[in-house]
Specification:
The protein is of the alpha/beta class and 314 residues long. Helices cover 48% and strands 13% of the residues. The longest helix has 24 residues, at 67-90.
Length: 314
């Protein structure tokens, strides 16, 4: 590792520890103001991310939204993501007290989760980190797979914050086997499926806002093998500066041995659910992610965003 990279990693650790020490002590109003400022600055100084976000919004909404409306959504998306980052640290302090004050469920989690294991879906919509904390505080600790950060020491610090209320963070290596074991023990597992899974890794192409994206079939596989239900929840900002957990209708229990057509049908239902939720609160989604990254074989590349590429197939 070069000297500069080593110094950068040390700086990342220092900044993370500083945020852990300071952000949690700030009043809620200051955290909200910081998120707005950080998001606005991020929007101004990130032309490459703006370009990705604008391309995604153009694909998703076409001429149904004006250019100023799309810019407004994108600016608010930057601010929402800044708040996600700050709230990792803010809710790490006095966690249960703050969750109960600032996070409300539109209906009791037990009405959705019941007493058996479920595959719980969420996405990069609203605050997925706070959602995990809130479920644990309500008596439903989740087990989830988290992509490791490039800086191992920072990754360890973040996982310590995530696991503060009883969540379990599963390493990606061997994750499916570990999640199945936990589900057979009655645990709920959480997945974020609004991101790309290359076809070479089992992703299939499903329509999302009228254009195919690659989607993982992991939720259907896990639920089918464990006899579990598939449910969803999204932690969206409210007018108080806190969050409201939206709980869409449960998707049900897949057949125990689904064939390829049934896997595609269920994955399509999941993807449509994600589209519905993004349309419900578009400014809460991470539009700067390259969601339409892969061009389906045989499709016209001109129908995809500028960043799209042809994937490697099995």
């Amino acid at each position: 590792m070069g000297w500069w990279k080593e110094q950068r990693k040390k700086g990342e650790v220092i900044l993370t520890r500083l945020a852990m020490a300071v952000v949690g002590r700030l009043p809620r109003s200051v955290v909200l103001g910081l998120a707005r400022a950080m998001g606005s600055v991020g929007y101004m100084v990130s032309p490459s991310l703006r370009r990705i976000g604008q391309a995604n919004l153009d694909l998703a909404y076409g001429d149904t939204l004006s250019a100023p409306e799309k810019r407004r959504i994108l600016k608010r998306s930057f601010r929402a993501f800044a708040l996600v980052a700050l709230d990792i640290f803010w809710f790490a302090r006095q966690t249960e007290e703050r969750i109960r004050r600032w996070v409300t469920f539109e209906r009791p989690p037990r009405e959705v989760l019941g007493s058996r294991a479920n595959v719980c879906l969420t996405g990069h919509l609203g605050n997925w980190e706070v959602l995990g904390l809130a479920c644990a505080v309500e008596g439903y600790p989740l087990a989830s797979v988290a992509m490791p950060l490039k800086n191992p020491e920072v990754d360890a610090l973040f996982n310590r914050l995530r696991q503060g209320t009883g969540q379990a963070i599963i390493p990606r290596e061997g994750a499916v086997r570990a999640l199945l074991r936990l589900m057979r023990e009655g645990r709920n597992v959480a997945l974020l499926l609004d991101q790309n899974t290359p076809p070479a890794e089992g992703g299939i192409f499903i329509e999302f806002f009228g254009r195919p994206v690659t989607v993982s079939t992991a939720a259907v596989f896990l639920a089918a093998h464990a006899g579990a239900g598939i449910v969803a929840g999204f932690c969206l900002p409210d007018s108080r500066g806190g969050y409201r957990v939206r709980l869409p209708p449960a998707l049900g229990v897949p057949p125990p041995r689904p064939d390829d057509a049934q896997v595609r049908e269920w994955t399509g239902r999941i993807t449509q659910m994600y589209e519905n939720e993004v349309r419900h609160c578009p400014e809460c989604w991470l539009w700067t992610y390259k969601r339409w990254k892969f061009i389906r074989p045989g499709d016209d590349s001109a129908q995809y965003p500028f960043y799209a590429t042809t994937p490697k197939m099995l």
